[in-house]
Amino acid sequence: MGDLSSDLQALFTVFQAEDFPGVTSEELARKISSAISHLTQSPHSAGGQDADSTCLCLTLIGKIIAGLFSEGLPQDARRLYEDVTKRLFGPADLMLELVPLLNSQDRLLSHLTAKCLSSFVVYDLCTHGNINHLWTSTCAETFQRSVPDCLLDTCLWSLTEVIKGVLRGECANKQEILQKLIASFETALGSLYSKLLIQDESEQTQAAKNDVDTVFSTFMDLLEALTAVRLRSGICSSVQRLMFLHTSALLHLMDSRLKYFVKKRMLLLLKRTVVQRPGEDWTLGGGQSVIQGDELWAGDMLALADSVLQEAAAGWLRQVRIKPQPSFFGGNRETFSAGEGKDTVVLRATSLILIKSLETKTKHAAAGGDDHVINVQQYMLELLTFLQEHVGQFKGETHKCSWILLVFGEQDDDMMESAKALTALYLYQRSLSSSAPDACSWGCNPHCHFILLLQSLSFDHTVLLDFLISAETCFLEYCVLYLKLLRDNWQDFCNSCSCIEDSVRVRTTQALPSASDTPPEGTSGTSHPQIAPQSRTSEKDSTVCSLPRLVDYGSSEESEEEVGSVSDLKTKRSTEELADIRSRKSAHV
Q1: How far apart are CA 119 and CA 161, in angstroms?
Q2: What is the distance between the alpha carbons of residues 557 and 47, in angstroms, rounded to a whole number?
Q3: Of the chain's two ends, which shows fewer C-beta atoms within 10 Å, N or C?
């Protein structure tokens, strides 16, 4: 085995250097098959050296298959790679040797096996349109068994990777392939969903706690992949609808004994679903949604919204736990004062799930699909109570509309989604009664939201232009919706400007108790927008302007010093332009 290991390491070095190996395809396939056969006889008790050699083989196979997807691969190398792959998974039937390794107690070995098998399944699907029956039957039987263990986790991960690979790959009949692939697992995944999420949690106590948490997290990844297929390819099967029709089962995980990262993963799944961005981390720039052809999408989204609102009315928000510190994946851990270091990812996800569900429900009601009046104000007050408990800066805030920046200030795409949805909620609530209560009292005044957004951008029109032309956020849709409102409600906009000025003055007075109580001249009782850009503050005065900013010029080496007013900004720019013109003239002379 020592000579074989040395040969494999030499071959791996050649492939790493993207060089051409000095062996025939037959000899290369024979060496790989021989190395793997040593371990498959007893996968649970193999020695360390054999396991290392097998891992090296699996990595080598994965590199060969990955090379087949490369457009820049030379033709002679492509022929070699194709011949080796055919020999390994054809006459040698390597699949029979690898499938037992999926259940190996060595987690690295089982993961590399799943990665290798998934790569081949994707290649076979995209090239020949074939679904490997051994891989399919193994995964389906594991799903039917539904025991949270290493094998279930590995099979879930493998199926998820295959779906991702086909969705991202260049396949001739991608929609047909995905439809056939999902249909192969429809019954098994339906059974798994029922046993994992709908049945009593006590039935899972026999499994190891770590396996249960890992399986649930991987299952969330699979549900997101299935939802991404539905949005990007227009495929809708019964298993893809389960998450929408049984959303309450997912929401109840917040009150389970699962670890925090699993609950967080569930919230991110629902958030990406309600904003129609599933798979945004791995779809390579996304793609156009094709939900227009999905006749069941609107009804399924309404069912999801109904579940969220029912759970929220029953006190679901009180079950949401927020870590006292944000999650870190390396580096130094910063220290935060009480209430300021909460996990904002969970805060944003929870808020967006509720807001977008309300938007879906109110749109359905406004279209005449529901005679029941939705009390938007009640849900928003419940959300504000939840945020006051977890967001330290919001506890002493006199202006309740500022919550949108405190929660979404670090994520511009979520910020625009929430602003658009909140504007729609305001319009719905206003349509119910001409004497609706003050929107600021429940944090849903769209004029305040827009002004606070401009403040966070330091009133920089170039940033607004960037948002308008960018496809990464829905700012264009939000801007059009808000400007239609602004056109007929200019006085409300002016009142919001005064309200924000008053709240800034209160914060300033609280932060600087020794300052004079006399308000600045010309700011009291105004009915015209006079909100000036926030000037950069020193560390000791940072509490005066405590709201977060989407563009932090103070931390950019390329940004210019901020100025105190719009007129100063225009004067400075005019001076700079004049100096530039003079320098050009002198250069020509």
Answers
A1: 8
A2: 55
A3: C
Query: What sign does the CA torsion over 125, 128, 129, 131 have?
Result: negative
Task: Take residue 209 and report the two structure tokens written for it.
Answer: 């706690």
567 CB neighbour count, 10 Å cutoff: 10
CB 425, CB 358: distance < 8 Å: yes
Three-state SS at 513: coil
DSSP one-letter code for 305: H
- Nearest by Cα to 320 from 379, 390, 273, 223: 390
Nearest to 426 by CA among 499, 381, 494, 359: 359
pLDDT tens across 385-417, in order? 999 998 877 776 778 899 999 999 889 999 999
Give the span between the Cα atoms of 93 and 89, in whole angstroms.
5
Q: Alpha-carbon distance 394 to 402, whole Å? A: 8
Q: How far apart are the first and last CA of the chain?
A: 80
pLDDT tens digit string along 54-100?
888 898 899 889 888 888 888 888 888 899 999 999 876 889 989 99
Give the separation between CA 489 and CA 436, rounded to whole angstroms: 15
Q: What six digits make up the tokens of 20?
A: 């051409």
CA distance 195 to 146: 7
> Which residue has tokens 């929870």?
350
Q: What is the pTM of this model?
A: 0.83
How many CB atoms are closer than 10 A to CB 78?
Answer: 13
